[in-house]
Amino acid sequence: MQHKERILKTLKREAVDQLPKDLWLDSNNPDVLKNALKELGENSYAALMDRFDIDLFRPKTPVRPEALQAGDDGLIKYFIPTTDEKLLTSSGEFERPLGHVEDPGQLDDIEWPSPDIFDYDGLKALCEPQQHRFIWAQPGTWSPIFIKICDLLGMEKCLMDLIVNPDLIIAVTERLFNFYYEVFERTIAAGRGYIDAISFGDDYASQLSMMFDAKLWRKYFESPVKKLCKLIKDNNLLIGFHSCGAMSGIIPSLIDMGVDFLFPIQPKAAGMDASTLKGKFGKRLGFYGGIDVQELLPYGSPDDVKKEVRRVAGILGAGGGYILSSAHSITVDIPVENIIAMYEAAASIKYTKT
Fold first, then answer.
1. How far apart, in whole angstroms, are the C-alpha atoms of residue 278 and residue 282?
2. What is the rounded end-to-end Cα distance, in angstroms, of the chain?
């Protein structure tokens, strides 16, 4: 069975010859890939995908060189994928570009980036060598709305303004939505005939609960997410939606919007264990991830990893609908022998019965 066919079938809850799987390395630290290649004796990420029989490929819309060169100026650096961990939403305290804004009218005085910062034609060059795999494209940066607002305003200000300055949140959301809607449109057009799914998302939750009440999610973010989902579905593509943490309270809404699979499943977050998710949502929603990166992969033994892979796959994969992966990106503290163990165990699961 071809890689692409395997993913498509499992998401349709049809029988497959073996468990579909992905390799998710931490893109915020280039040493992760470098160390993995060195320890495994391979020369490229593509070689790692072949070694572990990976079924999908996740390209990002490339950034134009001139945008990268301008990345230290203005807002552009917040709209392009980066390996600069200082830009991560909750890392450290530093001045945010919109941290001083209180009046929505001030947004008119700011130079916003254009969707032209991305090289849409370059997406085809990334996809062509991987057409045998399920191609799941990311238009621009992964977080179009809430996390982007946190990046621009600062997380504390964003969370406060959800309550005390709703007009500002609405105005910033509108600008971000208009930007990303065009990025999505142009990415979909450029990838036509190559891509099978679009992925995007926002981190709405901590390990214990949503960061804010679900009513606020519906007030500010449900509509733009729904419109982006409609755009994807209108182009006959599947939707992979990302949100870490304990976000089960909004899963029914995401399903109603047409989300096909949720990623990553963070098993140690409240309400996100495999049995609960499969029992509540497994008939209408696919799952990606589920292999713990907080304790198991960095600190467990290879035997522990294999046992957990078989357990999680037995639950989330029952009747189809599961893509095996680490519960978040593989980081430098995860020993290579545990990575190998994860894929050895996955390869031993030969099929999923409908």
1. 4
2. 16
Would you state the torsion angle of the CA atoms of residues 265, 246, 333, 144, taken in this order, to the nearest 10 degrees?
80
Phi-psi region of 291 (alpha: psi -120 to 50; beta: other; left: phi over 0): beta
* pLDDT at residue 240 in the model: 97
pTM above 0.90, yes or no: yes
Residue 128: how many other CB atoms lie within 10 Å: 9
Q: What is the DSSP letter of 300?
A: S
CATH number given to 3-348: 3.20.20.210
Residue with tokens 């290649």, as numbered in its chain: 37
**270-300: burial string, b at 16+ Cβ within 10 Å, e else:** bbbbbeebbeebbeebbbbbbbbbeebbeeb
Q: How open is the CA angle 179-64-114, to the nearest 5 degrees?
A: 25
Per-residue confidence at 140, pLDDT binned at 50, 70, 90?
confident
Domain boundaries, the chain: 3-348
Q: pLDDT, tens digit, for every residue of 58-104?
A: 999 999 988 877 655 678 888 887 655 445 554 556 678 899 999 99
